[in-house]
Design goal:
Blueprint lengths: L6 H8 L6 H28 L2 H16 L3 H11 L35
Helix pairs in contact: 3-4
């Protein structure tokens, strides 16, 4: 039951249940298909990445982080588990730094440009 007197909350309640047995079954089948696809996709990625390929990826990521790419730096720290876990008991201090604009990176040579 809606606790407040908001008319939108009351209107949503009058729409009825979101799932009946048929729509719940369809949603479960769709969810299972998506789960299976994601599992197969992950497995294919793991098989395709050799140790040499991973080393090249890490070297490229380190190079971009050294050039000032903040997203590459954050991704490296997240993957390595070095990202600071925030504790709600401690106050959070945020400092803003404005980095110099570097020229945009050119796409790799092995990717065709679509015009």
């Amino acid at each position: 039951m809606a606790r407040g007197s908001n008319p939108n909350s009351r209107a949503n309640l009058s729409k009825g249940k979101m799932f009946d047995s048929a729509s719940a079954r369809k949603a479960q089948i769709k969810s299972a298909e998506a789960h299976n696809y994601n599992c197969r996709f992950r497995e294919a990625g793991k098989e395709a990445l050799t140790d040499d390929a991973l080393k090249e990826i890490w070297q490229a990521m380190i190079k971009r982080a050294k050039q000032g790419n903040i997203a590459a730096f954050k991704a490296m720290f997240d993957i390595m588990g070095e990202a600071k876990q925030t504790n709600s008991d401690e106050p959070e201090i945020r400092l803003a730094f404005i980095a110099e604009m570097s020229p945009p990176e050119s796409p790799p040579d092995d990717i065709e440009l679509i015009e």
